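User: I'm putting together notes for a lab meeting next week and I want to include a structural view of one of the chains we've been expressing. I don't have a solved structure, so I'd like a prediction I can at least talk through. The sequence is below, exactly as it appears in our construct file.
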Amino acid sequence: MKIVVVCTGNICRSPAMELLLADALDDSVEVTSAGTQGMPRWEVSPPMADLLVANKADSPSFSNNVSNFRSKPLTEQMVRDADLILTATSAHRADVLNLSPLALRRTMSLGELARLSQTVDPAIWQGKVTDAERLKALVPAALAARHPNPNGPEADDIVDPYKRSNETYQRSFSQITGHIDTLVNSLHR
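Assistant: Thanks for the context. Below is the predicted structure for the 189-residue chain, given as structure tokens.
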């Protein structure tokens, strides 16, 4: 299963989403990332890189993945090839759908999928062994159960920390790790 995670520049939120999701999911899932206004070949923004490395201090290979990361712009081909597109915000979801309207049934924000994953009956992936199999069962069920966030349309969005305070980077990172933890815990309940 191929997942593409998307933010604006592909240097803060989507690299963190990519690296943390790839680390949390099994090898049946391939995760990559891109930016709607991606800046080619940039490294992860230093404050986000520091948070990522500190979070996985016991994993030298994870630190290497952070160091080796290079950003890229989102292309229509990447969207076509993806089984699932997870965005940082609902605005990024709209950008993906402007690029490729046929991606409607495979595109949602990470926050929305995490929230909805808690409402889906885990019986739908009973007997599914890999994370890819579980996700392939979860996504259509989550889309069918889709409902607005009672806290407002932006409540599922991950704050953009670029060129902002360390506190904003920490908030963004906490949102990402919270959504990923929720999603992975839902897949394994």
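A couple of points you could mention at the meeting. The helical segments are 13-24, 46-55, 60-68, 76-81, 90-99, 110-117, 131-144, 166-187. The domain at 2-183 is CATH 3.40.50.2300 (Rossmann fold).

User: Perfect, that's what I needed.
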